[in-house]
Amino acid sequence: MRAAYVMHQDAGDPLGGLGLGELDAPAPPAGWVRVHVQAASLNHHDLWSLRGVGLPAERLPMVLGTDAAGRTDDGRDVVVHAVVATAGWEGDETLDPRRTLLSELHPGTLADEVWVPERNVVPRDPALDVVDAACLPTAYLTAYRLLFDAAGLRPGQTVLVQGAGGGVATAAILLGRGGGLRVWVTSRDPGRAARAVELGAHEAFEAGARLPHQVDAVVETVGEATWSHSLKALRPGGVIAVAGATSGAMPPADLNRVFFRSLRVVGSTMGTRAQLVALQDLLVATGVRPVLDGVRPFDETRAAFERLASGEAFGKIVLTLT
Ligand SMILES: NC(=O)c1ccc[n+]([C@@H]2O[C@H](COP(=O)([O-])OP(=O)(O)OC[C@H]3O[C@@H](n4cnc5c(N)ncnc54)[C@H](OP(=O)(O)O)[C@@H]3O)[C@@H](O)[C@H]2O)c1
User: Fold this and answer.
1) What architecture does CATH give domain 139-267?
2) Ligand 1 binding pocket includes 279 (Cβ within 6 Å)
3) Name one Pfam family in it (predicted).
4) Is residue 65 within 6 Å of ligand 1 at its C-beta?
């Protein structure tokens, strides 16, 4: 099968270890189902795997990818849920201490086919095409859970989304608007800030700028570069919902501010199968659709990764495999 995979890992040159070509199809565990991938999208997670973060070298070569939409052998159109819990696990899959994401232990979605447990396929709502559906399982699901579960936001509240251009950030802008929130964003880049407003953000600010008033919650995926600003942006009792640390994971904690102002810091990873279903329902009900940086055929996977690594993408980069 055609696949994009991690050949070797290099923290400084992640794309140097990107393999593209034929790999043997995986031998699936008993009871898993095959999904013929029609569209798959890229995530920062794929770059971390190529850098050697979260993927031990002894598991190489490893097929990349956590997002896909496709068709099962028995003809069902599905979206793949990328959080693989251990057999028999009940409840929130993300809380299973032994859960993995596709491409960490089991081959990922950037291939002609991917095998997953039956519980990891969700029927694709016919209102969503395969490209839109392929954007959901990582960035959009993460944003959904950050806003409506980790931060517990309600219509009318204000959220600050740090780093406007990213996959999770653009998802948070769209879903936040769809869910009736006031959405503010920051960006290092005026062009991306302007595009965030076109997408629906109520206001965009320069990274680190003083805000008109403090916010109920912050969606934080940038990490060190924005952490201090995120803490200062919160009203007393506000919450930082954090799902990433692209610029570094060890900012000063500023504990005085955290306890004097009764702030909450809530970590969040991906989302549950039930939340993926709820996310689809939100998109169908609101008409919100993922923002796409580009859709490319699988032959252009390397260029797609170069675009992701450049940091210049705005929205999701999708590969089509049919
Ligand atoms: N926990 C989870 O389940 C989960 C799920 C998805 C993603 N993540 C993590 O969340 C992070 C973002 O993922 P993504 O797929 O959205 O990545 P992405 O599309 O590559 O977005 C990166 C964003 O970070 C901002 N950024 C990057 N470097 C920065 C710096 N030095 N200073 C300020 N801003 C910077 C950029 O914003 P501007 O250029 O607009 O300022 C850009 O919007 C990654 O670390 C990823 O691993 C976690």
Assistant:
1) 3-Layer(aba) Sandwich (3.40)
2) no
3) ADH_N
4) no
